[in-house]
Write a structure and sequence with these properties.
This protein is of the alpha+beta class. About 40% of the residues lie in helices and about 20% in strands. The protein has a five-stranded mixed beta sheet with strand order 5-6-1-7-8. A three-stranded mixed beta sheet has the order 3-2-4. A hairpin with a 5-residue loop joins strand 9 and strand 10. Helix 7 crosses helix 8.
């Protein structure tokens, strides 16, 4: 009797948002006012060891030769007209989490793939959307409607789908084709340190195929015992299943009264006590809340709700 895995070989869709920080700014600008067509290139900067460096750039800045990691002073010297914005990784993360929740419509098996990516296990799901090609098109169209540029790759393991999306052209790859495509990728797809990446290049090893053709033992001796495993994963030889994102259970506290209360001061006191208890529970779990709902159950059977939202997760009482 054939197993489920033989009937449905594992299929993973990597969705990468290469310009997520600048796309977030663009979304905000479009809500506020239409940005001018001749807007200057945008870079997002952060302070690293006392110096301002680029944390992210928009496509126009990238075309001008600017890249993350470059000192801000050097970027401004290269490009006179430059819009500099403070890097807000918390806002980028919040946006990505919103996309993750929305993409649950495609599969419940979905996980974050940092930085700025998602990984979807779409095994057995593609037929619901007209096939794998149609599924990818639907994902990309939904991303574009949200103002996010994407590059997607669909392959047999999460690791090979990731590198084909981030270091290759993206696309849909049949089993076996993904490995052939991965062999053509640069050694940067291993995501090693700059020092290790340079060492590989000095040895004349520029593509994954160059490494794949070499004995593993010398590579392990030169670059560490885990190097062959890393190479096997990006080539799709090993399948490391994803751990799906599961949102934490909501924190619920309540008070039940034998007699109804209606005095404003009594209601305020109860809400204050409930809020303190809520914050204590959040503190115990190390989490914060961004939406707080108070539900009032009336004696006539009606329920009134008040929702307060915050810009950032918090567990501090006002």
């Amino acid at each position: 009797m054939s197993s489920a895995s033989s009937v449905h070989p594992r299929r993973y869709l990597a969705v990468w948002f290469p310009w997520l920080p600048s796309d977030r700014l663009q979304r905000q600008a479009q809500r506020d006012d239409a940005p001018p067509e001749d807007a200057p290139p945008v870079v997002l900067a952060e302070k690293i060891k006392g110096a301002l460096r680029l944390a992210a750039v928009d496509p126009a800045a990238a075309r001008a030769g600017l890249a993350p990691g470059l000192p801000l002073a050097d970027a401004q010297a290269r490009t006179s007209a430059l819009r500099v914005v403070a890097h807000r990784p918390d806002l980028d993360e919040a946006l990505l989490m919103g996309v993750l929740e929305d993409f649950g419509r495609f599969t419940p098996m979905i996980a974050l793939d940092p930085p700025h990516g998602l990984m979807l296990d779409v095994t057995g799901c593609a037929h619901l959307f007209g096939g794998e090609t149609s599924l990818m098109q639907t994902v990309q169209a939904r991303s574009e409607r949200a103002g996010l540029q994407t590059r997607c790759a669909l392959a047999g393991t999460p690791q090979i789908a990731r590198v084909l999306a981030r270091f290759g052209p993206g696309g849909r790859f049949e089993p076996g084709q993904d490995r052939v495509a991965a062999r053509r990728l640069p050694v940067a797809a291993l995501e090693l340190s700059d020092k290790e990446d340079e060492a590989l290049r000095r040895l004349g090893l520029k593509r994954l195929g160059d490494l794949d053709d070499r004995p593993r033992a010398p590579l392990a001796a030169r670059f560490g015992a885990d190097f062959p495993t890393r190479l096997a994963r990006v080539l799709g030889d090993e399948d490391m299943r994803i751990t799906p994102h599961r949102p934490p259970a909501p924190v619920v506290v309540d008070r039940v009264f034998f007699e109804p209360i209606s005095a404003p001061e009594d209601i305020e006191r109860v809400l204050s006590d409930l809020l303190v208890e809520t914050m204590d529970r959040l503190d115990q779990t190390g989490l914060g809340g961004r939406a707080f709902e108070a539900a009032f159950y009336r004696v006539d059977g009606e329920t009134r709700r008040i929702i307060v939202r915050t810009g950032r997760p918090t567990r501090d009482t006002p």
